[in-house]
Amino acid sequence: MKKTSNTALKKHLHISLLCCVLLVITLLITACNEYVETPLPEDITSEHQFSIEPAPEYPPESVSIPKLLAPQHNTLCVSSEGPSLAIMLDGTLWVWEDNTYSQLDTGSVPVQVGIDADWVSVASGWLFTIALKDDGTLWTWEWEYGEFAEKAEPSYLKQLYSNPVQVGTSANWASIVASQWHIVAIKTDGTLWAWGLNCDGQLGNGDIAEVGLRHILENRILEPIQIGTDTDWARVSANRSGTMALKTDGTLWAWGRVASWFGDGRAWSRYTPPQTTPLQIGTDTDWVAASAGNANTFALKSDGSLWAWGNNPRDWLGVDSLDEIIVTPMQIGTDTDWINAATGFNRAALRADGSLWSWDLERDENGYPANGVRLIMIIAPVGEDL
């Protein structure tokens, strides 16, 4: 009887741990949808995709670390301004409303969006959802402000998502991301496109909308516009006030509101004008991924090292510095086996052995936050226990 009880307890603990992990991942995705990207299709020309063998010290041998990580399908989208969406393994799209912070008692019942089974990526922002099909076409849904405060029933969601509108006629979209305010996308030819609100120069077209909510809404860009003429964009991340992107040559670029997440050496000032066109961050050519949060950025290099910059209260970033703001990239530790990272209201990073790590403030003897952070493993490598 005791052995059976211990087994049940162990099973319960495993389930509880899984729920905590899912919550962490959900919070990361919630933070402005800021690290959700899709891969370039297989037919993209070779000049837009390349990789190298992993460094010798990378374990295990089966893990391949590319020089430029291909953007990943965003199959889960959790939005604080609207519904949550998910793409199933069969390519169907589902939507539901999380009523955690509302007075509604309708539950969170997922409903299928139409009958199509060819969706590959989805993102959501303020008053809109955008999704990509495997044929390279892009589709949107929009709603009015306040609708989800009153109409979150599954039947209403099903009606709302019954009529998607195609974005133009192009069938060569490859990658999409969305913040609360704007959308950024890459086509299979490596060109970069953006549309939406532009109050902070986040579209990168050299312009900025007039300040004031009415003016901002009136001046928003409703159709995709090309950002520059370059054809070597590979990956993109968006936050509320800006955009960060990588090129196939491993360089890192940013534009929008010049704040702590920028990383170009400038400390934030209310008088600093927005950067309205792409600006290269440093001169390094070995960046492979970047996740831009509203207050900080996490990024990976091709050698597997992890870097961060931005707001850093009590060394919140884990970069071994007590400076309140880190204005240029700083390495986190000395490890070179990181393969992915994301930042938002929480931070998490993935190692080559399959373990998932997060950061927590050090505590003093009374349990109060102290200077410094500690890395915590929240998912152990396959076959190992925490």
User: What is the number of E strands?
Assistant: 24
The tally of helices reads: 3
Structural class by sheet pairing and helices? mainly beta
* H and E order: HEEEEEEEHEEEEHEEEEEEEEEEEEE
The Cα radius of gyration reads 21 Å
End-to-end C-alpha gap: 26 Å
Mean pLDDT: 75
Give the spatial strand order of the biggest sheet.
1-2-3-4
Unreliable stretches (pLDDT < 50, length at least 5) are 1-67, 100-107
Which percent band covers the strand fraction? 25-35%
Helix content: 10-25%
The description of the largest β-sheet is: 4 strands, antiparallel
Shape: globular
Question: What does the model show?
Answer:
By secondary structure, the chain is mostly beta strands. It is 11% helix and 35% strand. The protein is globular and about 55 Å long. The protein starts with a helix and ends in a 7-residue tail after the last strand.
In brief:
The chain has 386 residues and is mainly beta. The chain starts with a helix and ends in a 7-residue tail after the last strand. The protein is 11% helix and 35% strand.
SSE blueprint and pairings:
Elements lengths: L1 H29 L45 E2 L6 E4 L5 E4 L14 E2 L6 E7 L2 E6 L4 E5 L11 H7 L4 E2 L6 E6 L3 E6 L4 E5 L16 H6 L2 E6 L6 E7 L2 E6 L4 E5 L18 E6 L6 E6 L3 E6 L4 E6 L13 E7 L6 E6 L3 E5 L4 E8 L5 E11 L7
Antiparallel strand pairs: 1-2, 2-3, 3-4, 5-6, 6-7, 7-8, 9-10, 10-11, 11-12, 13-14, 14-15, 15-16, 17-18, 18-19, 19-20, 21-22, 22-23, 23-24
